[in-house]
Amino acid sequence: MNHPAFATPAPQRQAAILIVDDAPASLGLLQDILRNQGYRTFVATSGERALDLAQRLQPDLILLDVMLPGLDGLETCSRLKTLPRTADIPVIFVSACSDTDDIVAGFDRGAADYIAKPLRLPEVCARVRAQLQMRAASRSNTQQVERLRMIVDGMDEGLMLLGQDGRIQYANPASQRCLGTDARDLAGRGLAELLAEPSAQEIESWFDTRDTGAPGQARSAREVLVRHPDGSLRPMDLSLSPMASSEQLWVALLHDISHHKQSENALQRAALADPLTGIANRRHFDACLEREWQRAIRVAKPISLLVLDVDHFKLYNDLFGHAAGDQCLQAVASTLQSHALRATDLAARYGGEEFVLLLPDTSHGGAAKLAESIRHEVERLRVPNPRSTTSGFVTVSVGAATFVPSQFDDIRSLFLAADRAMYDAKAAGRNSTKAVEGGFAWEAMQQALAR
Ligand SMILES: Nc1nc2c(ncn2[C@@H]2O[C@H](COP(=O)(O)OP(=O)(O)OP(=O)(O)O)[C@@H](O)[C@H]2O)c(=O)[nH]1
Fold first, then answer.
1. Which of 75, 202, 264, 353 is catalytic?
2. Model pTM score
3. Which CATH architecture has domain 4-151?
4. How far is the CA of 342 from the centre of ligand 1 (A)?
5. 429: Cβ–Cβ under 8 A, 6 or more apart, which residues?
6. Which residue, 19, 194, 292, 407, has fewest beta-carbon neighbours within 10 Å?
7. Neighbours of 275 (CB within 10 A)
8. Alpha carbon distance 365, 222 (integer Å)
């Protein structure tokens, strides 16, 4: 369907026409003809009056006699063409001077047409109609261009026109915002220059293959990283499609997806966090343990694991309720987290009231010290647990295991050793720690020492 904004202009029957002539006879004749055609007419008998009326009335067309007293028709036309409010109004000269030189002079002053006297009425009507249709068409084109500009300027998406070499020829305001650079600085720059690797290289090669005319997909859509002048890297969706025109141009659409990425990252983080305590969950811990275990094998370094369990927590829960129990677990978790000092250390809630602390590149002695420090810190929280037979406060038992793992060791053995150590600590009276060493290498060494 043809949208009204893009419809073909209809001829203007109600158009306003200013007739400028000092001879009453031809003025009257023209007025009669044009009124009969349904136009609105205004008259002026001098150039000065015509200038004044034209500015105030903004007619759609001016019929202008060449021979006028004072300011003649040619001069009047020149002035009309210099005034902003009248410059676009078409002027048709109406004159008895119909030599070629006169006609040429009229066009030189900016006239749209020239009608020679004596007037032939059907010709006058046809020429007036033609000028009005052209004016309506040109107005409609201007309106369409303005509407398109408004749409492009108001878009949230960045829109750019690129040459065949990938250089920017036009950038709308949204793309200037996306790229953090104004239109003047963008003009002529290669799109690839504004991107970080690997996107920059990909886009450059993409345009290189277009240049050589190599076959390939005409359209392209990808995620790129834009190098913003503030130093940040911003993820954006970039799509490139050819524009149907004789010179080959590409339309690039840029869509900032930083917000989506942030929420995606937040979701990913949430999927790895324990909702009650905010520290890592068991899934995150398992993935880290796998990675760090393999790394410890490669670099032949120790890896330690602490397993921590709250003592007599059932009694605490039964006395104070589940909500208070949750708060107690949060306090224990934050004490544990404060002992995850290195970037590679990971504190996690393993389940229920059991927690773990993974300590890559940490020796048996270091792990034992940390276990003791955590036990001590939890005791120092002095969270009352009146029914505890160990102490009047919430306490924890901590088991620590340290392996220098080899290919012969099973990854599960580290957790089992630390868990067993934690149960040994419980058995030893709770509110205590126990640290052990294990693994194939350690056992081999023990056996060698025993011989
Ligand atoms: N409030 C709360 N309680 C939990 C949560 N997860 C597990 N528990 C409770 O933790 C308690 C664990 O009790 P037990 O396994 O008997 O151990 P305990 O009472 O701590 O005794 P020992 O470990 O032998 O010192 C149970 O009462 C569980 O209901 C939780 O997310 N919130």
1. 353
2. 0.54
3. 3-Layer(aba) Sandwich (3.40)
4. 29
5. 390
6. 407
7. 8
8. 51
